[in-house]
Amino acid sequence: MMNNDLFNYTLHLADNSLIMGHRLSEWTGHGPMLEQDIAISNIALDLIGQSRNFYQYAATLKDDSATEDTLAYLRDAREFKNLLITEIPNGDWAKTVMKLFLFSTYQFYLFQQLINSSDKQLAAIAEKSLKEVTYHVRWSSEWVIRLGDGTEESNKRIKAALDEAWSFTGEMFEPAEYENLLLSKQVSVNVSEIKIDWKNKVKSVLEEATLQYPKENNSWMQTGGKNGIHSEHLGYILAEMQFLQRAYPGCEW
Amino acid sequence: MVIIMEEIKEHIASAAIWKLMEEIYDPEVPVISIIDLGIIRDVKINNDTIEVFITPTYSGCPAMDVISMNIRMVLLQNGFTKIKITQQLSPAWTTDWMTQNGKEKLKAYGIAPPVGKSFDKKYLEELKVECPLCHSQNTSLISQFGSTACKALYKCNDCLEPFDYFKCH
Question: Model-level pTM?
Fold first, then answer.
């Protein structure tokens, strides 16, 4: 009998990385300059690589013929458990780097804890991923600071990006049922506990960027992603990402 | 006696396999072998089955699939038929495992090898990367991300050439 909570939790981690990675890959060939095009494509690649590790593990937890590919390409939107912040459209460069900064900082503290998971494979994937995420945090922090403390126009845009992305940060720290059920076995990370670290880091980068950390008690937060309730944007991502496998089942090259 | 003979045979086979892998190169950096790169963790022989344990460099590195395929090909060509390649994620790969020989080869190829140890927190802030072309220390970072996941892009302020730096990881 497979552990359904562990399967769902692993999928949640996998879906976060895949959907964020796929979204960022839309910048490939469209970056504002060559070096940054390469940088964001590399980050997308790291994330998609992380998702493969999680999907491969998830596939072993299921006793049927699931593979990393069936999990990525043959599930529908309702079965995806990614955070909503990973599926929102890229918008302009400011919006992309802001959501990546908020998300990467979350991943950084999450993986730092997941290394201690009693589940050896999740711990190993976290250990591997953390090295890469450290680069993502550094790169996106630098961009937030550069735009915030830049020109009037760049400041206006990164401010708007923060306003827009902010309502998607709440769900990071609200555990889904499967996360809670795995806590007692020390498998999952207590996300409400990493909030303090996340807040301190985000606050210090925003301050350096001359931006204000939003007031917490009067902002309404979006939720649902962890339980498969998504925005319309995910459907469009899947339509593009899964097209080939849906149209030509089993196609390989 | 039979058991000892088996052990000796396995020992010889294992040494031969390690030797064969010295001839398998990283497809992205074709001067450095997978042994120099430090990604082969172990070779286990169980009856006729060879199990090779490899550690990926970066999670999404497309070279890893090619490397796995090449290991399989080389072993098949040398008469080993039952081959299993197992990815081992922990402990995570680090450039500290790269051989000195590998670092020399990188440099000769025009890629600055990783500087320092990966656990040294200061490595990114005060890093001095030597230009692999004119050996000047007067270089600066252009981008933390380069032509592949494992490299950063630098330029030399003396000879003015841009060059790849194999990131300390």
Answer: 0.91
B145–A139 CB contact, under 8 Å: yes
Interface of B to A at Cβ within 8 Å reads 56, 58-62, 89-93, 124, 142-147, 149, 153, 169
Contact A49 B59 (CB under 8 A): yes
- Which residue range(s) make up the domain with A172? 4-247
B103 and B152, same structural domain? yes
Exposure string (b/e) for A44-72, b if CB count within 10 Å is 16 or more?
bbbbbbbbbbbbbbbbebbeeebebeebb
What CATH number has the domain bearing residue B82? 3.30.300.130
In chain B, which residues have their Cβ closer than 8 Å to the Cβ of A33? none
Q: Quick one: pLDDT at residue A53? A: 95
Query: B50 vs B80, B119, B158, CA distance in Å?
Result: 8, 33, 50
Interface check A115 vs B, CB under 8 A = no
Q: Domains in chain B: how many in total?
A: 2
Contact A128 B153 (CB under 8 A): no
B65 and B44 in one domain? yes
ipTM of the prediction: 0.82
